[in-house]
Design goal:
This protein has 195 residues and is mainly alpha-helical. It has 9 helices and no strands.
C-alpha cells in the first residue's frame, strides 16, 4: 500500500531520503508541467524542477502541514519559476489593455458575434498552428495570470487550492483566471476569424 503524502513528508522530515525520493517521483511531472508552462524552455524548466526540489529538501523540516503538501510544492515551484523569469526577462509580455478583450470606458465588455471554432477536416493541418498560437498566447500572458491559468486549467486545481498555493484570496484567483481566459479566448477568436 503506497504511503500518503503526509506519511512521506513525516518520514522525509526525519531524514528518510527514500521517502523524499518517493515524494519527488509523485510530483515531478506536475512540477515540470507547471515550470514549463511558466518558463517555456524545456532545459530551463528542468532547472526550475531541480531547484524546486532542492528548496523543498532544504526546508522540508519547516513544513508544518497547515496546507496540503501539493499546495506547498506548487508554491515553491511558482516562486522558483518566477525568480528564474526575473533573471531572464527575455520575453515580451502581452498587455492586458492592448491584447485583451475590448472594454468601454464604463468597464463593460464589447461583445462580438460568436465565431464557429469547429475545425473542418481540410483544416487539420492548421492544428499545429493553433497549438503554437496557444503556447505563444500563454507564454505572453503576464506571469500572475499565466500561473493561475496553469494551476487551474492545466493542473486541475480548485480555486481554493490555487489560492492556497499562491497565497492569494479566492476572489483574486477568480478575477485573474477570468482575465487570462478572456485574453486567450480573444486570441483564439482572432485566429478562427481569419481562417
Amino acid at each position: 500500500m503506497p504511503m500518503t503524502d503526509v506519511e512521506l513528508v513525516k518520514k522525509a522530515q526525519t531524514g528518510d531520503y527514500p521517502a523524499f525520493e518517493d515524494l519527488v517521483r509523485r510530483y515531478q511531472d506536475r512540477v515540470y508541467r507547471l515550470a514549463l508552462g511558466m518558463i517555456q524552455v524545456p532545459a530551463e524548466a528542468e532547472e526550475v524542477v531541480q531547484d524546486t526540489f532542492l528548496n523543498i529538501f532544504k526546508n522540508i523540516k519547516e513544513f508544518r502541514g497547515d496546507a496540503a503538501i501539493s499546495s506547498w510544492i506548487f508554491r515553491v515551484t511558482a516562486n522558483t519559476a518566477l525568480m528564474a523569469l526575473r533573471r531572464q526577462r527575455r520575453k515580451p509580455h502581452l498587455s492586458l489593455e492592448d491584447a485583451g478583450p475590448d472594454f468601454s470606458e464604463d468597464g463593460t465588455r464589447h461583445v462580438q458575434e460568436p465565431t464557429d471554432w469547429t475545425i473542418k477536416p481540410n483544416e487539420l493541418v492548421l492544428s499545429g498552428e493553433l497549438k503554437e498560437l496557444i503556447q505563444t498566447t500563454m507564454a505572453n500572458l503576464p506571469e500572475k495570470y499565466r500561473l493561475v491559468l496553469l494551476l487551474k486549467d492545466v493542473e486541475g486545481l480548485s480555486n481554493e487550492e490555487v489560492a492556497e498555493a499562491l497565497g492569494l484570496t479566492v476572489p483574486t484567483v477568480k478575477a485573474r483566471l477570468h482575465r487570462s481566459r478572456l485574453i486567450v479566448r480573444d486570441q483564439l477568436d482572432h485566429y478562427f476569424r481569419n481562417q
